[in-house]
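Sample 1 of the test manifest.
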Amino acid sequence: MKSKVETFSNVMRSFEHKFDMRLAFTDFLTMTICAFGQKPGTGISYDESLYLETIAKYKNDKVRFEFPKLLSLLTLEMTERMNSTSEGWDILGEFYEMNLASKTLSQFFTPWPICEFMARCNADNALQNSDSDKRIRILDPACGSGRMLMASSRVFGSQHEYYGIDIDQTCAKITSINLFLSGLFHAEVMWGNALNHSDFRGSYFTSIIPFGLFRIQEREKSKLWNILDSTASEYKKPTNDPPESASKKYPDGSQLKFF
Ligand SMILES: C[S@@+](CC[C@H](N)C(=O)[O-])C[C@H]1O[C@@H](n2cnc3c(N)ncnc32)[C@H](O)[C@@H]1O
């Protein structure tokens, strides 16, 4: 008899029989971030209490053993798909979009080939206009699952800085795991409203030393929040001229404004 192949998606869906799948999925994301944020040399997470509090819901059920299996399936499937040219490796985003995404927040993610096409269009311009020894900062202010950033990393390279913002905490968590598992170690994903950077609700950043994915709760510790804050202060400086980027005239007389 042919046995059913286990995939991230069908193991995740098996939670549905006993648990709320949205909750189980976000618990998986939370525990994965805790597991990736270990104190060097100890094997203990910086967020150990959050990990224990999260797994406690499943302590009397054998499904708790499915969480490590989910993480191994996720990394295997991502690694396999990283070598494929057309479909990308956003396993988490595909699962989320198909099963849990919010229609009211317009959580429809851009198809991978379009993400790659847009990344290539941006790369020509950005790489030409920057010093080759400087890191470029790439931001998706409504990042969803982060696939625009993942596709950009394939075009720009992993040495650059990748930033995402999403108002939905589940998306911020998905993006941070996606960036970490894509080998992007100069990256941060903010949970908050991109239209108002003071609405900082938390953040996740990747790092090489210490190696891992870590949670930040205070906005002052967030590199992304500091970049947004200094950009906003620059923009607010009193001047008679509008900022260069706020209004641009084109040869045909048309004008593009950024508000
Ligand atoms: C249409 S999806 C696009 C996701 C991604 N950029 C892509 O191309 O696949 C829009 C995302 O923006 C997020 N979003 C909506 N309003 C936002 C806001 N004010 N600040 C940050 N994120 C927001 C939603 O939660 C959703 O994940």
